[in-house]
Write a structure and sequence with these properties.
Number of domains: 1
Number of helices: 4
CATH class: Alpha Beta
Structural class: alpha/beta
Order of helices and strands: HEEEHEEHEHEEEEEEEE
Distance between the termini: 8 Å
Largest sheet: 10 strands, mixed
Strand content: 25-35%
CATH superfamily: Ribonuclease E inhibitor RraA/RraA-like
Number of strands: 14
Shape: globular
Length: 176
C-alpha cells in the first residue's frame, strides 16, 4: 500500500511517535507497514532466523541490534526467508549485508548501515519485548508505517486516505 508518512503526521499528530531519521532503505519496497514483532539481540542472528521462519502475516520485524555496525544482522538469506514467509518488512537498529541482493527483494528493509561481516548464528536474544531506540519505545503489536520520508509508530491501525473508489475514501491495514 502506498501512503505518505508526512500525511500521517499531519492527520494523527497526537496519536503517533516519529522515529528519528537514522535509517536507510535496502529492500525493493519503500513503503511498508504492519504490526511489529520485536527482537533484541547483539551481533548474532540465530533468533532472527528462527522468527523469520514463521509466517509473518504482514508483520514488520523490528530488531534492536544495539546499533552495532561491526556485524550484519540481516543478509540475503534471511531477507529471502522473510519474503517467503510473508513478512512486510524489517527494520534493523544495526547493520545489513548483501546490499545488491537486498535491493532486488520484494520486501521493505531499513537499517543503519551495511557491512560485509556476517553475524554469529547463536540464539542469544529476546523476542516480543519492548525495545527503545531512535527516540521511541516500540511495543510488540504496535503498528509501524515506513516510507522514503521516514518511520512513524502508532498503538493502533490508522485509517489512511486512499486514492481508490472506497465509499468513505479511507483505507487501512485490515483491507490488505
Amino acid at each position: 500500500m502506498e501512503y505518505s508518512t508526512s500525511e500521517i503526521c499531519d492527520l494523527y499528530t497526537d496519536m503517533i511517535d516519529v522515529v528519528e531519521p537514522i535509517f536507510s532503505h535496502y529492500g525493493a519496497i519503500a513503503s511498508f507497514s504492519g504490526p511489529i514483532a520485536t527482537i533484541k539481540c547483539f551481533e548474532n542472528n540465530g533468533l532472527i532466523k528462527q522468527v523469520l521462519e514463521q509466517d509473518g502475516e504482514g508483520q514488520v520485524l523490528l530488531i534492536d541490534g544495539g546499533a552495532s555496525m561491526r556485524r550484519a544482522l540481516i543478509d540475503a538469506e534471511l531477507a529471502n526467508l522473510a519474503v517467503y514467509n510473508n513478512w512486510s518488512g524489517i527494520i534493523c537498529y544495526g547493520a545489513v549485508r548483501d546490499v545488491d541482493l537486498l535491493e532486488e527483494m520484494d520486501i521493505g528493509i531499513m537499517a543503519l548501515v551495511s557491512i560485509p561481516v556476517g553475524a554469529d548464528d547463536d540464539l542469544h536474544g529476546e523476542e516480543n519485548i519492548p525495545v527503545n531506540f531512535a527516540g521511541v519505545t516500540f511495543l510488540p503489536e504496535d503498528i509501524i508505517y515506513a516510507d522514503s520520508t521516514g518511520v512513524v509508530l502508532s498503538p493502533e491501525v490508522l485509517a489512511l486516505p486512499d486514492d481508490s473508489d472506497d465509499e468513505d475514501g479511507l483505507n487501512d491495514l485490515d483491507d490488505k
